Amino acid sequence: MARSMTFLILFSILALAPMCYCGRTYGGYLYPQYYDYSCPQAEDIVMSVVAKAVAKEARMAASLLRVHFHDCFVQGCDGSILLDSTGTMPSEKRSNPNRKSARGFEVIEEIKAALEEQCPHTVSCADILALAARDSTVLMGGRSWEVPLGRKDSRGASLTLSNLNIPAPNDTFPILLNKFNRQGLDIIDLVTLSGSHTIGNARCTAFRQRLYDQSGDDQPDSRLDQSYASQLRATCPRSGGDQNLFVLDNVTPTAFDNSYFKNLLAYRGLLSSDQVLFTSNKESIELVKKYAKDNEVFLQQFAASMVKMGNILPSTGSRGEIRKICRKINS
Ligand code: HEM
Ligand SMILES: *[C@@H]1O[C@H](CO)[C@@H](O)[C@H](O)[C@H]1NC(C)=O
């Protein structure tokens, strides 16, 4: 009897598994229909607040997309980036990649407030980030995808891991790839997701090094188009102007398309971490060429890689909570 039960359970798991479009990482299950009964209006609410924010300021789409990435690379996609500092825990908002840079937190909080009104204590802040990243992509002209849902919010944050795990704009190709590999992401995900830099801005501090002294010999980065470099130097001086903003894709700065990859072919990538995708590794170079040639192929793979990144779950699995407000754990 016990044996046939075990068999039945095993059989059900094996038979049903292929039908389930879900991300399974570290024992957690995510699936797009997670809120279908508990909060059927969840996706509409997220989209309406994101659309309003992006209509007010197009850059907000880029900022929201980036916050999801910076959340997922630190203890998994668990909303840890959203927590403010407490007496015992410094916020990830203070890390090198996030300080004076990560933005959009008030939009996330506005979505959360709207959701708490309609379906109290139901939709996690981590899921809001995943949905807002998808909606931001779509609003700028990218393809849509189904977002697996059911994440839980963390009870803590890690400033240390935020500094350690999130790639830096002057990382070499092997370091970038290593940081993605450590998250279970591969070279295809690295090149494809870097295509996010088809929208949004970067500050002068993020690329000054390559304009003046890329490798300690007082020379600009040789893998940078020199007329583009002098254009950049005009508003990103050797010192001062740290926070001056530049578009990451200066051909179609607010369209989610493949022009980022075309820029790399012309040595007009803004960050060193962008340009190395076309100068350091054969497989990566081929991917850049492929996406530069075919927008549709890029957009399709982007959707797939976003689902994969969104499936990075915390090692604590499904433990965690649904926060009432995103910047604070429940008391
Ligand atoms: C491959 C390694 C990556 C590096 C080194 C990197 C680095 C950076 C840097 C330095 C900035 C400018 C920040 C500032 O100056 O304030 C930036 C902006 C941005 N990044 Fe990345 N990034 C990487 C991958 C990604 C990924 C995977 C995504 C999304 C899935 C992403 C999305 C964005 C977006 C949308 C912006 C513009 C944000 C805004 O305008 O507010 N990046 N990135
Ligand atoms: C990368 O940039 C950081 C911050 O500006 C700097 O401290 C570090 O030395 C740079 N690394 C390399 C390899 O140039």
What's the short story on this structure?
By secondary structure, this protein is mainly α.
Can you offer a commentary on this structure?
This protein is mainly alpha-helical. The chain has two domains: 22-166 and 309-319, Peroxidase, domain 1 (Orthogonal Bundle); 173-307, Orthogonal Bundle (Peroxidase, domain 2), CATH 1.10.420. The chain is built from 14 helices and four strands. The protein has helices spanning 2-16, 42-56, 59-72, 105-118, 125-139, 159-165, 173-181, 187-194, 208-212, 226-235, 259-265, 272-275, 282-293, 295-310, and strands spanning 23-25, 28-30, 201-203, 245-247. Helix 2 (42-56) packs across helix 5 (125-139), helix 8 crosses helix 13 and helix 13 crosses helix 14. The N and C termini lie far apart (46 Å). It binds protoporphyrin IX containing FE and 2-acetamido-2-deoxy-beta-D-glucopyranose (NAG). Protoporphyrin IX containing FE binds next to helix 3, helix 8 and strand 3.
| Spatial strand arrangement across the major sheet | 1-2
Strand content: under 5%
The mean pLDDT is: 92
What binds here, in terms of ligands, is: protoporphyrin IX containing FE, 2-acetamido-2-deoxy-beta-D-glucopyranose
| Straight-line distance between termini | 46 Å
Strand/helix succession: HEEHHHHHHHEHHEHHHH
Percent of residues in helical segments? 40-55%
Residue runs with pLDDT of under 50 for 5 or more positions: 5-27
CATH class (first level) name of the largest domain: Mainly Alpha
